[in-house]
Amino acid sequence: MKQPLLVMAAGGTGGHMFPAQALAEAMLRRGWRVKLSTDARGARYTGGFPHTVEIDQISSATFARGGLIAKAGVPFRIAGGVTSAVAGMIRDKPDVVVGFGGYPSIPALSAATLLKRPRMIHEQNGVLGRVNQIFASRVDAVACGTWPTELPEGIEGYHVGNPVRRAVIERAGAGYIVPGDYPMSVLVIGGSQGARILSDVVPPAIAQLPMEVLRSLRVSHQAREEDIERVATYYAEHGIDADVQPFFNDIPRRMTEAQLVISRAGASSLADLSVIGRPSILIPYAAAAGDHQTANARGLVDAGGAIMLPESRMTVEDLAAQIELVLTEPDGALQMVRAALGFGMPDATERLVTMVEELAEKGRT
Ligand SMILES: CC(=O)N[C@H]1[C@@H](OP(=O)(O)OP(=O)(O)OC[C@H]2O[C@@H](n3ccc(=O)[nH]c3=O)[C@H](O)[C@@H]2O)O[C@H](CO)[C@@H](O)[C@@H]1O
């Protein structure tokens, strides 16, 4: 029997590429051949992909940050991208094509639609991204990372969750030390890039905590490169023990040790939080397309696993009050942990794999 082939198409940001990487690793282990179609920006996130994934880099000239370049000639270049994807698919006959969002997934999904190959999309966020919106009604299945996901009328979604790293899986449901009169830690993360607003509001909010909490507190704060110095200085001047870095490579460990996490509401951060199971205060990025970070946070917040503070209305005082509440109410914090765990999907990759295999099977019969 011919080795089954999976074609994945993803682009732009790490947010689209991380789930693609998890699926690639799992399908290779099952003996599949895996191809990835992406552009130059997406290719920057392929460092962690297994070497046996065949990467097909499509022209970035067709795509621009935030959308298609509005100028003459673009339709022809897109048509060119689709034509070469069609040629490749006539030759390779992929068993399944999966799109993870981002403009670079257009050619492969269009070719799969034209050639009627089995195809699906995975949406990481609680609102469909622009490309996934176009294809939701043209694919065989829509896998959702966040639940609930707002879907166009008539479209049924399957909740599979967002795949998380192995280091996160290894800490799934790790024991939680409830807040108390001993060393405690708070983790502050702003997505893969860091977030300025967290550097503006979190340090002064922490500085307002009662002395008995502050005395035993250690803060890990991810800040944008340009904010590192002022944030570190602020904590030092207020006698707060803080580790301020542009990116922590050991987030799974720091998250496990934290009594509280203050975070943006990106899809992977929420998946990490609910698989490990930690109380969180979420400040969704208001400018995200379709306000998708608010949609991402909604389910976890409604379940009681997190507190949401919209950035438009949040003050330093509000934030300080919520931090104090979590760090001084051990029962409440433990309830948040349980609610978050109830929301976590450590088997997201396996669920995605099952969908791919079922689709391939259907395509063969
Ligand atoms: C600003 C923005 O538009 N962000 C989007 C981007 O996510 P973005 O990449 O910003 O954020 P995510 O929360 O999805 O992922 C961040 C990942 O990096 C990890 N981490 C973070 C900080 C750190 O120091 N070390 C570390 O390892 C987190 O634990 C998490 O696993 O794509 C996601 C998926 O489409 C969207 O949900 C987000 O809204």
UniProtKB/TrEMBL annotation:
Compartment(s) where it occurs, according to its Swiss-Prot or TrEMBL record: Cell membrane
Residues covered by the Glycosyl transferase family 28 C-terminal domain: 186-352
Gene Ontology biological process terms, A to Z: carbohydrate metabolic process; cell division; cell wall organization; peptidoglycan biosynthetic process; regulation of cell shape
Residue numbers binding UDP-N-acetyl-alpha-D-glucosamine: 13-15, 125, 165, 192, 293
Single GO term (MF): UDP-N-acetyl-D-glucosamine:N-acetylmuramoyl-L-alanyl-D-glutamyl-meso-2,6-diaminopimelyl-D-alanyl-D-alanine-diphosphoundecaprenol 4-beta-N-acetylglucosaminlytransferase activity
EC number: 2.4.1.227
Membrane topology: Peripheral membrane protein
Reaction catalyzed: di-trans,octa-cis-undecaprenyl diphospho-N-acetyl-alpha-D-muramoyl-L-alanyl-D-glutamyl-meso-2,6-diaminopimeloyl-D-alanyl-D-alanine + UDP-N-acetyl-alpha-D-glucosamine = di-trans,octa-cis-undecaprenyl diphospho-[N-acetyl-alpha-D-glucosaminyl-(1->4)]-N-acetyl-alpha-D-muramoyl-L-alanyl-D-glutamyl-meso-2,6-diaminopimeloyl-D-alanyl-D-alanine + UDP + H(+)
UniProt pathway annotation: Cell wall biogenesis; peptidoglycan biosynthesis
Lineage: superkingdom: Bacteria
Domain Glycosyltransferase family 28 N-terminal, residue spans: 7-143
Keywords (A to Z) from UniProt: Cell cycle, Cell division, Cell membrane, Cell shape, Cell wall biogenesis/degradation, Glycosyltransferase, Membrane, Peptidoglycan synthesis, Transferase
GO CC term, one of those recorded: plasma membrane
InterPro entries in the cross-refs: GlcNAc_MurG, Glyco_trans_28_C, GlycoTrans_28_N
HAMAP family recorded: MurG
Family as reported in the entry's similarity comment: Belongs to the glycosyltransferase 28 family. MurG subfamily.
Entries under PANTHER family matching the protein: GLYCOSYLTRANSFERASE, UDP-N-ACETYLGLUCOSAMINE--N-ACETYLMURAMYL-(PENTAPEPTIDE) PYROPHOSPHORYL-UNDECAPRENOL N-ACETYLGLUCOSAMINE TRANSFERASE 1
Role of this protein: Cell wall formation. Catalyzes the transfer of a GlcNAc subunit on undecaprenyl-pyrophosphoryl-MurNAc-pentapeptide (lipid intermediate I) to form undecaprenyl-pyrophosphoryl-MurNAc-(pentapeptide)GlcNAc (lipid intermediate II).
Entry protein name: UDP-N-acetylglucosamine--N-acetylmuramyl-(pentapeptide) pyrophosphoryl-undecaprenol N-acetylglucosamine transferase
